[in-house]
Amino acid sequence: MKLRYSDIRKHLRVNRLNGSADNVATLTHYLQNQDLESSATYEQYAHSFYEELQRNVPEFGDISMQHLKSIKWDIPFPSPDRPKFTFIDLFAGIGGFRLACQNLGGKCVFTSEWNESAKSTYEANFAEVPFGDITKESTKAFIPKQFDVLCAGFPCQAFSIAGKRGGFEDTRGTLFFDVAEIIKRHQPKAFFLENVKGLRNHDKGRTLTTILNVLRNDLNYFVPDPEIVNAKNFGVPQNRERIFIVGYRKDLGIDRFEYPEPLDEPVAIEDIFEEEEVSVKYYLSTQYLKTLKEHKARHESKGNGFGFEIIPNDSIANAVVCGGMGRERNLIIDNRLTNFTPVTKIKGEVNREGIRKMTPREWARLQGFPDTYRICVSDVQAYRQFGNSVAVPAIQATAEKLLEQLNLQ
């Protein structure tokens, strides 16, 4: 019987949690990339870790490396057998970029993510453990020499550029510097960067100006003006605006790019609701609902718009976010509840108005993740992960345009 990834996953997980995260990353990357030149980057370390497993894990004693290399990927999203292009996935989160690019025929040859919970979700869906902190040289050393596209949803940070020209060196100490450094070293054909809408005006516009100066002048890439792209225009009922920045290496002779046109498709949150009655744990207690109403009333009396919000079924959701009022800004009315007995400790009773939070699966759908995507963490972690993720359909539509210019579609 062919060895399945699920047969060895638990043993790899134990080793990863015991401090061997990058060891597991090298092995899973090696197995995933064995038919590509990029496998050479991981081969030595993967074999060393495999030998360690054979010595210390009885279940690995009879598993040959050849057996491992013919493994069956019993996961929701295996890599394409005949990839059209290669890419790397930085600040990978739970794999929104990867899912979009794989849908277009891409093969991920390196991924990194520092959050352990996000790593678990990523690995459960793609059978690849991301490497850790991308600011470390030890992590960057595992990036294969060549790949076609760099993808990164890097965090927004200010630069210390007072009195300086705002170039490559002035971004040191920020995560954008690490992205720029990787582009400089590896010279991919193209890159696709994603960030919050506020990047446009961050530090009075100086942050974005510096980023574009580095990409265009220091790194010598053709970079069209960035675009604010809204997820609601690409088939998901969420008002989520993000800034997209794409670029092509100038020697390729590409001097034009058009971001995708919005789809002419009506969307509404009722399209992503759970099909069956959900657990009572998602329904607000009367006491908590009273607290939310009082909180909103206090802010309204001051002329502020803060507070909870119930989204009409035929409308679209506010942007899902990882903290604060993220869930409370996207409450819905669902009157299908039949059992009002609490399953968690709450103050008061379960409200009879049908007011509940969206479930993690509904948040996944708001971000364009298919229902086959595995949610293997707590609700708290799942909300955080989907709130931090990219909206897959918007990424995919833009990536498709980017690849068309490279003749990789």
From TrEMBL:
<dbReference type="InterPro" id="IPR001525">
    <property type="entry name" value="C5_MeTfrase"/>
</dbReference>
<keyword id="KW-0489">Methyltransferase</keyword>
<feature type="active site">
    <location>
        <position position="156"/>
    </location>
</feature>
<dbReference type="GO" id="GO:0008168">
    <property type="term" value="F:methyltransferase activity"/>
</dbReference>
<dbReference type="GO" id="GO:0032259">
    <property type="term" value="P:methylation"/>
</dbReference>
<dbReference type="InterPro" id="IPR029063">
    <property type="entry name" value="SAM-dependent_MTases_sf"/>
</dbReference>
<protein>
    <recommendedName>
        <fullName>Cytosine-specific methyltransferase</fullName>
        <ecNumber>2.1.1.37</ecNumber>
    </recommendedName>
</protein>
<keyword id="KW-0680">Restriction system</keyword>
<dbReference type="InterPro" id="IPR018117">
    <property type="entry name" value="C5_DNA_meth_AS"/>
</dbReference>
<comment type="similarity">
    <text>Belongs to the class I-like SAM-binding methyltransferase superfamily. C5-methyltransferase family.</text>
</comment>
<dbReference type="Pfam" id="PF00145">
    <property type="entry name" value="DNA_methylase"/>
</dbReference>
<keyword id="KW-0949">S-adenosyl-L-methionine</keyword>
<keyword id="KW-0808">Transferase</keyword>
<dbReference type="InterPro" id="IPR050750">
    <property type="entry name" value="C5-MTase"/>
</dbReference>
